[in-house]
Amino acid sequence: MYEAIREDIVSLRLIPGSMIYENELVEELGVSRTPIREAIRLLVSEGLLEVLPQRGTRIARISVRKVAEARFIREQLELGAFQLAARLWDPGEHGGVKAVAEELLGRQREAAEAGDAARFLQLDEAFHQAVIGVTGNATLQQVITQMRGHLNRLRCLALRQYHYMPQMIEEHLGLLEAVEQGDEALVAERLEHHLGKLDVELPELRSVYPDYFQE
Question: What is the pTM for the complete model shown?
């Protein structure tokens, strides 16, 4: 239940600032109240839901502060992870990873052609996780995934607004190529470019969707 509700929040199917109700979730998801309450508890602790006394539970607005914090952590962790993946890359050992990454990019093209930003973002996550998996560091993968909740809502909004999914696929191809080459400097350069759009996007998106954001 946690994963299903979280995905609805991150993909913006549940609008920032809107209310959700336990009874509706029980009926919609076809489960008892216990897993719903546990999911709500976890999402409140993650800062994606807010409990309002005497009113109910609200989808947290996108926190500009948390986005900035998550972005810094993501960039630092992913830079180290992708560079380590490049250092460890062995064509014989990691051919399966390359095949998975290429399959994910093919599915991203399908999502881009369909204009499905939420699906595209899911596949984006899977691509990054596949490459980071080369490090063998499960804790690193878990931390990066957990930190992306607030950031990915902004990224999903940006994908819908700017329609640059084809560009992101090309950037993924370039990243995979740099990792295969074992070129850590090139990995850093391409990853910085890949992750560096938010400085321009955030103020623009706040002006278009002011009700979605909070400081």
Answer: 0.84
